[in-house]
Amino acid sequence: MSALPSSIPVFERRPIRELPDELISQIAAGEVVERPASVVRELLDNALDAGASQVTVRLASGGVRLISVEDDGLGIPREELTVALRRHATSKIASLNDLETVGTMGFRGEALAAINAIAELSILSRFTGADNAFALDGRTGELRPVARSVGTTVEVRELFFATPARRKFLKTDATELAHCIEAVRRHALARPEVGFSVWHDGKLMEQWRAADKREQRLADALSDDFVMQSVAVDHIGGAVRVVGRAGIPDAARSRGDHQFFYVNGRFVRDKVLSHAVRSAYEDVLHGQRQPVYALYLEIDPSRVDVNVHPTKIEVRFRDGREVHQAVRHAIENALAAPRAGDAVVPAAAQQPFFKPNVPASGATWAQPAINFVAAERGVGDFDAMWPRRADESVMERSGAETSHWPVIGTPPMSFRAPVGLAANPAPAEPLATNEEAWPLGRAVAQLHGIYILAENSQGLIVVDMHAAHERIVYERLKTQLDGAAITSQPLLIPATFAATPQEVATAEACAAVLPTLGLEITPFSPRTLAVRAVPGTLADGDPVELARSVLAELAQHDASTVVQRAQNELLSTMACHGAVRANRKLTIDEMNALLRQMEATERSDQCNHGRPTWRQLSIRELDALFMRGR
Fold first, then answer.
1. 346: Cβ–Cβ under 8 A, 6 or more apart, which residues?
2. Alpha-carbon gap, residue 481 to 475, rounded angstroms
């Protein structure tokens, strides 16, 4: 027989024995400390739990040579300093009940011991009411009196000196510094009442002063553009409250680097939360663009488990579906309100039209303002106007019942009796002011049969008429569908497919829920499922693909989003065919009617494909084009 290759170790029986404490600490440190930013995060957690109002972070060589976190919190008593460096020593919890209702940032009692095992750590602290401070050397255990104001300073030098292999995996100083700053930014966004500053090699890199309002901290830490290009979120769903700001679709980025989600003040990355956010943006944001947001979820600590991962960045919810629904509805409601009202300057602040009082940055997109009426004095319903034109070749009249429908066949039965939606909505009470109160202004011209030009108190509005009308028709169809129950269409021949054990278990457990979605999925054999009925509006689709998608969503989230998504895709296609086409000449009345409907239609700022429907050009921007005032 040939000898075994040298790469294969020869089996050797070793006795079972306890590991040395130092090795145990170094293993634990591998879970807690990945890079300098991990140390910054843990030390910031302790500083905030101590009630600090000002935190200063000092770094050298990207945090590898030095990490110093100084706070003005309560401090640590002398007799507890040495205990603080022991494994599983903490003041945050004392019982299982405390662990299940954690309200502090830290609670595991591992961070300081883990850091001390792989770096040179020292703690300087003065407890509230004490005569002087004390410094503890983590390596020698020496405790000596020093001068310091009330608070704590933790210094970590020569990170990973005890584990050289880990140090080789670190990136450049600039990269590690960027991660450290991002760790501080995440804490700063959660605690606007606390001031933060970051120094690197003696230079001030970032500083965020204490703020009274969360919006001010968001503007300081993320930029004024983030606040201007986002909408306020404030929603309560069951036992969950979601607040913060969600970016408008126009502000979406190619990367998800501006996505901040907090659960009870703790920055987390969670699949339930990220899926809920993405679901909320589905109807206005298409493709691979990533939304921007800073959202804060408030929930009873007993309903969320934060003891999932040593880094505390993952959580587990007791009722994931409740949280998913609350987050999705919070963002959907915030994005639904038309932002056209932001183009209007309040009447009291308006100046003569040739010299408006506008901000330097031009149009703002910040808060969804007021709910404007669908029709104004002398302005009719655009949908009731344009299909009846004698020169219209795209649409054909097929009776009053289907006058709003494209000629692609008879509308489904569920659409024939719209619930709560009149073909010609009665005008509400007109606004007390004049035409300048219209957010999207007064139509003045049509450009190349594609764009509508309108003037308002800010300047010029340019509207893509097809994209705008497409969204109006789409939202009207969705409103009609929402008023009807989801009807099932039995399949003549059931569609069978080989199912995974998870899919079979989900189909059996959710047998009562599936019919409410218009689906009938039954076991055909121990490893096969049969789709016997699908929603009537989706009868022409792939039943197997729909069933798999619903079962996958139902296993983790709310499966109704799958059916809703598929139905919305159908309605979007119908709306696209039914919308006014390019090169269609409109009268001034028709253009004004379209503008008024845009102001009253939800999500009218984007078309069904995620493109913007209108843009604002301020007088100042127009003046700049012609160098007026120079």
1. none
2. 10
